[in-house]
Amino acid sequence: MSPVSIFYFLELTTNRHALGSRARKAPLGILTVRFEMPFPIWCTTCKPHPLIIGQGVRFNAEKKKVGNYHSTPIYSFRMKHTACGGWIEIRTDPKNTAYVVVEGARKRDTGEDVVREGDLVIESAEEREKRQSDAFAVLEGRVEEKKQVFSDKTRIEELWADKERGWDDPYERSRKLRKVFREERKVREKDAERTEELRDKMSLGVELLAESEQDRRRAGFVDFRGVDGETAANKAKSKPLFASAGQKQRQSLQLEVENNTRAAVDPFLSGNKPTLPAVPLVKRKRAVALVDYESDSS
Question: Model pTM?
């Protein structure tokens, strides 16, 4: 059997899901997904006190379809809290576009669910049908709407009156604004002049930032203490005249000797190997005997 036929044979006979181990409960309609906590909750299984689980904490959850809201499916996310071993179940709520804690925990009350002034409340189909069929509900709704309209109208009138008071005399209002602008412009021009003088004096080629209160406080911590003339003279008299020059020369000579010694002892300290001084070779002549005493000619 050729390798190609073996490959196709294995592909056709393998009965594995594309999601691997995450779909081990696929016949039951359950998939393992990564679920992120949409809001902080209290785990009621933790003892002796409930433990809070923050928003954004992720779990390996079992996702399962548990129903429908019209044509929108309702999903259940069931996960295990590793701290106590309890199970927490959260379901989607398509009706209110939210998540609902069903088991093992309760949502932390942060005050976001409270209807405040100005919030738009969307009524469901049942509530609208109830209002239309119930005369008292219709009357109560009209009364609430009238109160809201009266409150909004009063607020708008107050804002309009405040605006009219501020601009009842446009010339006076404009004069005050121009006066403030002129004063601020003079201060800005004076600061720019002072900054330019400082740059010219110190020969600075960089842009100087404006002075801040923090700069003033930090500059106040600096203490420029003067040196007494008599003390300075006594110090100058007590010092040797050529102490600094001799000391520098002695240190440089000592450093040079140490470097040369280390390089000669350990050639790996320097990049180049030290070269040994060339020793001239002396060629000696062999002594040749003038008379061979073992010969017969003697």
Answer: 0.39
